[in-house]
Every structure is written in C-alpha cells, then in structure tokens.
Amino acid sequence: MTVKEDKWTFAVESAISRNLETFVLHSQKDRKVFFDMCRSLNVQTPNVIITSFRVPPHDTRGNEPSRDIPTIERIIHFSNPVIRNCLIDTASIESIMLIETDEEARDLLNGSCPINVRKAFTRSGGQGQGKNSQGGVYRFYPNQSKDVTARYLTKAKNYDVKQLNFIIDTEKAKCRDLDASIRRVKLAVSELWKTRQQLLKQLGDMDTRKQSMESERRRLERKMDEMGDEDTEDTAIGSLKNSITEIRANIKRYHEERDEYMKTRGQLEEELGKARGKSGGCEEKSRRCTEWIRTT
C-alpha cells in the first residue's frame, strides 16, 4: 500500500502504526508454519492477523463520512484488498479523518465533528475524537515529539543498481579486511597471553627462590649466633658473615629484578587490554558491516 499524497504520510502512519509490523496470514495452519519458521531462524515471532484471503473487499459506505472529507481509507492506495480489509477490521480506517493542523482539529472536533468520524489525525501526528449535536466526547492530544518523519510509508527510492552493487562490494571488502584484522589481533592477544603466563611463572619461581634465600639467611644467622665469638675461629665466623652478606645482596638483586618484572607485567597487562579492546571494536564493525550487507 502507498499513501496517495506525501503530506499525509506521517498522519497515516501515526494512525495505523501498530498494524504496520503485523503479518497477515490466511489460516491457523499458515500461522503454525510461520511460527515454526521464525523459531528455526531464532527470530522473535511478530504479531499476526488470521483472516481469509478469499473474503471480498469490505463495503464501507455505511460507515464513512461524506465524500468531501479525507479519511485514511481514501488516502491510501491498496494493491491488496486483504490488507485493506484488515485495516478496516482492526483500525476502522474508513472513519478516521485527516485534518491539516492541530488548531483546525480542535475547532472542528469540539462540537462540529462530522457524522461517522470516529477519530481524527493531523499532519503533525496530533490525534483526537470529537463531539457534535448527536453526542460524543471531545478529546485532543497533540504530538509531543519533534520527529514527524514516517518510518515505513515513505516512497521507495530508485537506486542505481550498478552503484548499489559497487557499494555492497566495497562493504564486503571492508568486512574481509576487518576479519583479517580480527585474526591478527586475536593472534597478538594469544601471544601476549602466553607471554603474560610465562612472566607470572617466572615471578612465581623468583618468589620461591627468595623464600629459599630468606630461609638460608635465617639459618646462617642462627648458626652464627650459636657459635658466638669465644672459641670459634675468626675464619669460620668470617665465612658465615660473608655468606650472609652474599645472600642479602642476592635478595636485594631479587627485589630489583622483581620490580622490573612487575613493571613489565603492568605494561603487558595494558597492551593486552588494548589488544582485546581493538579486537572487540573490529568484531563490532564487522558485525555492523555484515548486517548492512544482509539488509541491503
């Protein structure tokens, strides 16, 4: 279906927006097949209307306002009578009036609403219902959104097929490049992870050696305390002191080496985080690129 006059596109879409994402099916059997297909494709099942495709076009002459009043049903060109029937059944489009401005709608609906007009919509998306000498209740709600652009009923654009194919090929090439980048980044992440694990193992080995050196230092210090200075040769005490001094020097070197390792580990963790972020960004770009190609 298409809107005959562009100026009414947003008003029409505002009036029947709930129906525009609904699928129309002929029977419950069709519904089952359709839902099974959605589940197999892991697609959320949309709203559906079950109606016989063999029903002739509805005769709405008894429910319409006078011929000089524009209505949704009159402003739409239907290529399929089944869709027209559904919109008449679910939205009563034959009795929804179209009015140019909100001000005109307020003036008309508040006491002078035409016969057989159930609702009214304005070009800006305002909507209301009216009253007249026969009764009714007046209400009007202006559209609070600044966006008055139709999403579904805009006229299809004519595309240059060669140009569109060129754009698609270009996007496919971008996807291939992104996929290659993803593989390279993932390989880099894997290598960084291996280096990180090796570094952690080296740090663990260093901690073990430090504990061993600390234990040896304490043992030698206890031994030297036990020996005392009385009956012990100076050479023996000197040897112990030298051993303790050497161990202390080794422990100091250990701390210096460990500080360097920790610095390297921090840099490695930062590089790993950046690489993972780059990988995620490439994957998101690739996903958007693939989705664009799929929907074009």
UniProtKB/TrEMBL annotation:
Q: Name one GO biological process term.
A: double-strand break repair via homologous recombination
Which GO terms of the molecular function aspect are on file? ATP binding; damaged DNA binding; single-stranded DNA binding
Which source organism? Pristionchus mayeri
Question: Would the keyword S-adenosyl-L-methionine be found if you checked this record's keyword annotation?
Answer: no
List keywords of the entry alphabetically: ATP-binding, Chromosome, Coiled coil, DNA damage, DNA recombination, DNA repair, Nucleotide-binding, Nucleus
Q: Which residues does UniProt call coiled coil? A: none
Span list, region Disordered = 205-233, 271-296
Q: For bias kind Basic and acidic residues, which ranges apply?
A: 205-226, 281-296
- The lineage's top-level taxon is Eukaryota
What's the protein called, per UniProt?
SMC hinge domain-containing protein
Q: Give its localization.
A: Chromosome; Nucleus
Any one GO CC term of the record: site of double-strand break
Keyword flag Transport: no
